[in-house]
Amino acid sequence: MVPAAQATLTSRLERWPYKDPFRITGYEWTESELVYVEIGREGAIGRGECAGVYYKNDPAAHCLAEIERVREEIVRGAGRQEVLTLLPPGGARNAIDCALWELEAKLQRRPVWQLAGLQQPHALVTTYTIGADRPEVMAQRAQRFSGATALKLKLTGAESDAECVRAVRRARPDVWLAVDANQGFTRSTFAALLPALQEARVELVEQPFPVDRDEDMDGLHSPIPVAADESAQTEDDLPRLAGRFDIVNIKLDKCGGLTAGLAMAARARELELDVMVGNMMGTSIAMAPAFLIGQLSRVTDLDGPLLLRDDRKPSVEYSNGKIWCPQDVWGDGG
């Protein structure tokens, strides 16, 4: 642990435009609002970033206000365990927690993966996400991601969903394919779509039903594995999801940082749930700590920077369908 000492805290709101408008069930974005944080101590600086959780009334502006609310405690030297009680799960705690991990790594001259007790990281196959759109547009974007070996399609519960999946599969017969409903299905629409998903060799369905309808998973017996995303916010949700879902999607903005994400992954394994790692959008500073959760995951979905016009430098690297995070991006112990 980093010894308690006077620290500095810098935080700011940033706007990062998308390459194309990004659409999911009930929402469309042209940019991401992000909060960037730096915590300094003894000549070292740790960095963190968050987007917040839009559907939990936790947008970036709220995250920034939450960070300011605990500024005094952070400046006084609060560590990661104290932050777990100072801030609730959400974007603000994620940004502070990740900044403290990197700060600790620099002060101890050990990379974060070693501090976390992980094996040395390796490159991971990541999904490339295609926002909901007309079938021909989604097929074109699938071809644009020519280096991808795994694609995730955003679906909305519309009648066109089946043709969207078929169009992408025709355009990319070679890729591993997942679909994400973002709570947009019902039992009946999922049942109607399922033959098309099987025909297109879809290998994962993410969050088919609304979060207040998790019981719709009971007795579903889907031939395709189903992942919980919006239903899986924190470690406390996992016992309720075990036996209903096959996989839980850990996002650091949801659970509140790398500290909570590592604990959530461990608890998921205890409950015989597979782990997926995702993101609420962000630059490479947000992908890098999530990349460490990816080392423990069955599915990795860390393509946020690919949807942005620009990224921070240095950046995570995307090549041959994989993501790699050089240590100088974030978390290098120097």
Question: Can you give a write-up of this model?
Answer:
The protein has 334 residues and is α/β, with parallel strands linked by helices. Helices cover 33% and strands 23% of the residues. The chain has 12 helices and 14 strands. The strands form 3 sheets. Strands 5-6-7-8-9-10-11-12 form an 8-stranded parallel β-sheet. The chain has a 3-stranded antiparallel β-sheet with strand order 1-2-3. The model has no long low-confidence stretch (mean pLDDT 96).
Beta-strand percentage range: 15-25%
Give the strand line-up of the largest sheet. Answer: 5-6-7-8-9-10-11-12
Whole-number total of structural domains: 2
Give the CATH superfamily of the largest domain. Answer: Enolase-like C-terminal domain
Q: Structural class, judged by helices and strands?
A: alpha/beta
Order of helices and strands: EEEHHHHHEEHEHEHEEHEHHEHEEE
Uncertain runs are none
Please count the helical segments.
12
Strand-helix topology:
Layout: E1 8-24, E2 27-41, E3 44-50, H1 60-69, H2 71-75, H3 80-86, H4 91-108, H5 112-115, E4 124-125, E5 128-130, H6 135-144, E6 150-154, H7 161-171, E7 176-180, H8 187-199, E8 202-206, E9 226-228, H9 238-241, E10 247-250, H10 252-255, H11 258-270, E11 274-277, H12 284-294, E12 299-300, E13 317-319, E14 322-324
Parallel strand pairs: 5-6, 6-7, 7-8, 8-9, 9-10, 10-11, 11-12
Antiparallel strand pairs: 1-2, 2-3, 4-14, 13-14
Helix pairs in contact: 1-4, 3-4, 6-7, 7-8, 11-12
